[in-house]
Amino acid sequence: MSMKNALEGLSAMLKGMSVTFSYLFEKPVTIQYPDVKRKPPSMFRGRHYLRLWEDGMERCIACHLCEIVCPAQAIHVQDAPNPKDKPISKTARYAADFQINMLRCIFVGDCEEVCPVDCIVLSDEYELSGYTREEMIYTKEMLTEKHPGASGRDPMVKRGEARMD
Amino acid sequence: MWKEQIDLELERVKTDQEKGTETMVLNLGPQHPSTHGVLRLVLELDGERVVHCEPHIGYLHTGIEKECEYRTYHQVVPLIDRMDYLSSLHEEMGYVLAVEKLLGIEAPKRAQYIRVMMCELSRIASHLVWLGTGALELNVSSVFMYCFRDRESILDLFELISGARMFPRYFRVGGVMRDLPRGFEDAVKQFVGEFRVHWKEYHDLLTKNPIWRMRNEGIAVLTREQCYAYALTGPILRACGVAYDTRRAFPYSAYPEFEFELPTQPAGDAYARYLVRMSEMEQSLRIVEQVLAKLPQGPIVAEGLQPSSKSERSVWWRHPHRGFLVPPGESYVTVESPRGEKGYWVVSDGSNKPLRVRMRSPSFVNAQALPLLVEGGYIADAVVAIASVDPVLGDVDR
User: Fold this and answer.
1) Which of A76, A149, B32, B217 has its CA 20 to 30 A from that of B210?
2) Which residues between 44 and 103 in chain B have a beta carbon less than 8 angstroms from any beta carbon of chain A?
3) Would you state the pLDDT for residue B20?
4) Chain A contact for B198 (CB, 8 A cutoff)
5) Is B256 on the interface with A (CB under 8 A)?
6) What is the pLDDT of residues A116-140, one digit of tens each?
7) Residue from A1, A8, A20, A31 whose CB has the most chain B CBs within 10 Å, to mutate
8) Chain B closest CA to A34's CA: distance in Å?
9) Number of C-beta neighbours around residue A101 at 10 A
10) Beta sheet of B340-348, edge-to-edge order
11) Chain B: residue nearest A106 by CA?
12) DSSP H helical segments within B264-309, as ranges?
């Protein structure tokens, strides 16, 4: 290696080192995950919820569309006639059982898009883990939101009218 | 017959011993960090030299091609996302274009522009993974961190637009999933500005660095004739001085409307591939900027597929149990993925499910050239050779 080459190499290395050195004074781009949590954007496709009407009745009409379109066959819906004296949904049928196998789900969001009553939504919860296979099959009790609007999902998101935040 | 084989083997060992040398068989992979996934190379070594190399694939076989035959046209999209997981949008692009060709429709202009922009961002993200991991294998760990930082910003953009980072499922037959959210264009502009600065830093860190050059120059050399013989495409071919790019040779989508150059290098070694890919990132940025400047207004889904009234649904959900029907016939579409020419051959029998979906995956074809690159070189350079080919094993095995 000639003298000129050696000098060129040295200057290139110094240039590279100056880049890494300048990063010493930059703010880190990482976040301290378990302590600091990142807020996903409004379109995020995470854990499912079954929404309720404002009066607390179930939106799900057991039409099985989410079950049909799911490319991973993760959803199981059991329909039953709506009891006349104590209605659960606003139509003739309601979902007697609704299960999502979270180990099968690939979060494409087709169930949310196809739902005719804006019932099933994908929320921004992403910490989904469990110790056994059984507890990863989410039951209807786990999926139904606690009170109307608890899922935090704006169903307009799927119509393309999303905010950016 | 096996007896003859044993005799032959014994004969060979004997001659090796007479020559005073003996080869050793080394198993590189499938669980080796430098083989980019689950590629397995069986290397026959004579000292430090590789005398024979045999790539073994199939560890990531998922049967996606076969699985496509049991899904409706719309359900295939999330499936093929998972083949080339570093640039899923190019997978979607090829498939969606092939089905659109069968249907005889074309996505509206705005959708095509958005598709081009997302594809180019995806190309940058894929090249950043190649650069980061390729540098990490030569112990340049800071470049790896910087590259993944920039890749994260691109994945955040994907998340904004579609809701998922790696498997967006954003392209639809006849258009795209949703229009750009408010403020998205500004976010892309900000990324382009930041990335231009970072791209210069990568050049400062690597391009003239003597160690980087010594490890890459003259390593894994391919000639133009070898590229033709093995049907290699993408940056490998362009690093041999051939300006072949599907975006130019068979223009698709909105690519003819944008200006970009095809970076080529004459040398054909790992360093030339590095330079080509670095320039490609710059060209991709140029295309993204042009898209942002020229982005037209209008619908994002083709005529007749969109809901015409509030009670109607878009074509993908009009008959959820059946999907939509595609007239019988076959179509072949190629797109330029970051790894090379990606082809989609879709055959329809007139039903709602494809009769056959066959992919020409660039990783699979390019991985065939590994023995050419590795044999005759040092074992330490095998790692550089694999990195310079940049195979994605999900794409190789399908």
Assistant:
1) B32
2) 71, 74-75, 78-79
3) 63
4) no
5) no
6) 888 888 888 888 888 999 889 999 8
7) A20
8) 19
9) 16
10) B329-337, B340-348, B356-360
11) B78
12) 270-294
Which of B205, B216, B310 to mutate to test binding with chain A, by most A CBs within 10 Å of its CB? B205
What are the tokens at B25?
A: 């068989």
Non-local (6+) Cβ contacts of B287 within 8 A are B116, B117, B120, B258, B260
Strand partners, B359: B344
Are B187 and A164 a contacting pair at CB < 8 A? Answer: yes
H runs (alpha helix) in chain A = 3-22, 65-69, 110-114, 140-143
Burial class (CB in 10 A: 0-12, 13-18, 19+), B225: exposed
CA distances from B166 to B64, B85, B98, B188 (A): 18, 7, 22, 17
What's the confidence (pLDDT) of residue A165? Answer: 41
Mean pLDDT of chain B: 87
User: In sequence order, which residues have a C-beta less than 8 Å from that of residue B46 and are 6 or more positions away?
Assistant: B21, B23, B24
ipTM, 2 dp? 0.86
| Paired tokens of A98 | 């609704």
Task: For B13-38, write each residue's pLDDT tens digit.
Answer: 666 666 667 788 888 878 887 777 78
User: Where does residue B246 rank: exposed (0-12), middle (13-18), buried (19+ CB within 10 A)?
Assistant: buried
Task: Let me know the angle formed at the C-alpha of B396 by B392 and B397, rounded to the nearest 5 degrees.
Answer: 125
Give residues with Cβ within 8 angstroms of B306, minimum separation 6. B175, B299, B314, B315
Separation of alpha carbons B189 and B191, rounded Å: 5
Q: What is the pTM of this model?
A: 0.88
